[in-house]
Design brief:
Blueprint: E1 12-16, E2 27-30, E3 36-39, E4 55-57, H1 96-127, H2 129-146, H3 151-162
Parallel strand pairs: 1-2
Antiparallel strand pairs: 2-3, 3-4
């Protein structure tokens, strides 16, 4: 069975940006003002963070507003029950039932993406296709792995989307 080398699948924190360092795709850095940037492809040393061919700004800051008045305490709410949906976390201790639900959710997303893709394929391929694929595919593959998918399952999903 063929294997797929998916390369780097999640960001790597590199700390404060350095003009003397080169960076790989998905490396994250912080500038002197505290803003976070992520590389969208290999970055040569000295490439400034404002160069949008290499960097995407992930955080923004607006002006600080005036402090408002303290409001009244609201009534205590019902504790309720936890929802059955699985939210992505970086934990790797999912139960078998949660893994099964995640696989179901991933299957739905793939089916939706496939049907939706045909409607917007021309637009995406003409302007954003390569950038989206280079940025999102590694993230989606990591989500699959984090939720218990095997490499064989990821290969099968890719084969489905290519057919």
């Amino acid at each position: 069975m063929p294997t797929l080398s998916i390369g780097k699948v999640r960001y790597v924190w590199k700390g404060t940006w350095s003009a003397t360092a080169s960076y790989d795709i998905l490396d994250r850095v912080q500038d002197s003002d505290g803003f976070i940037y992520e590389s969208i492809k290999a970055v040569p040393a000295g490439t400034v963070l404002t160069n949008t061919s290499y960097w995407i700004k992930l955080s923004v800051q607006g002006p600080r507003g005036l402090k408002g008045d303290t409001g009244n305490d609201g009534p205590k709410g019902d504790t309720g029950e936890a929802p059955t949906a699985i939210l992505y976390t970086e934990q790797n201790n999912l139960t078998d039932a949660q893994r099964a639900q995640a696989r179901t959710n991933i299957g739905w997303a793939a089916a939706f993406a496939t049907s939706f893709a045909s409607a917007i394929a021309a637009w995406v391929s003409s302007s954003l296709g390569a950038a989206i694929e280079a940025y999102l595919v590694p993230i989606l593959k990591q989500l699959c792995l984090d939720n218990g998918a095997t490499q064989a399952e990821i290969d099968a999903l890719e084969n489905e989307s290519d057919s």
